[in-house]
Design brief:
Helix content is 37%, strand content 10%. It has seven helices and five strands; from the N terminus they run αβαβαβαβαβαα. The longest helix has 14 residues, at 146-159.
């Protein structure tokens, strides 16, 4: 993560776009299955004096653990080959999961739910989908790989049959350069002035 060739400019651009264009009543939360802290570093680089309205929590939740800042609050480090049963209840995982099931809008980037741990997450949301807002949620799934995109969308539809899933067959950087059109359609982003 400390190598200079790791390009986080797309993450930074996303955060600046959200900072500058998020509509008044929208809030963003970041949950990842990645083990790196690159997203958190980019959030920290924005140097907030206080928590901004558009980002009520400046921390990134790591469902599968993290390679840095390991403590009793954080989820234990999980590998793709681990069973979903290895996921132990921690404050971080419980808070993130409880926030997720009460939300209605999701953007999923580059995830195919191939590994057992991620399939376990889908099984968990399936158990609550009839009773909580996630059951009728809307998803934008961004992935340039047609097969992975189709698999991700299908797995979400199977877990959440009443959800609306919109595939976006582009890489994250291109989707960002296109202006995040699906977020504009939802009313998440206001048109940029100037």
């Amino acid at each position: 993560m400390d190598k200079p060739e790791i390009d986080t400019s797309a993450i930074h651009r996303l955060l600046v776009t959200l900072r500058d264009q998020t509509a008044r009543d929208w809030r963003h939360r970041f949950v990842t299955t990645n083990w790196d802290t690159l997203l958190q570093r980019e959030i920290d680089r924005l140097n907030f004096d206080s928590t901004p309205d558009w980002l009520p929590n400046t921390g990134v939740a790591h469902l599968n653990g993290v390679v840095e800042d390991v403590n009793e609050f954080r989820s234990p480090f999980l590998l793709e080959t681990d069973s979903a049963e290895f996921r132990t209840p921690t404050a971080e995982a419980n808070i993130a999961f409880n926030q997720i099931v009460w939300m209605r809008h999701f953007v999923l980037v580059g995830m195919s739910f191939e590994c057992r741990v991620d399939k376990g997450f889908l099984r968990a949301i399936t158990k609550v989908e009839d009773d909580l807002p996630i059951g009728e949620s809307e998803w934008v799934v961004v992935n340039p790989n047609d097969r992975d995109l189709a698999v991700s969308c299908q797995r979400i539809r199977e877990a959440l049959p009443n959800a609306h899933v919109q595939p976006v067959a582009r890489d994250f950087h291109t989707w960002l350069l296109d202006g995040l059109p699906e977020l504009q359609e939802w009313g998440v982003l206001c048109p940029r002035i100037g």
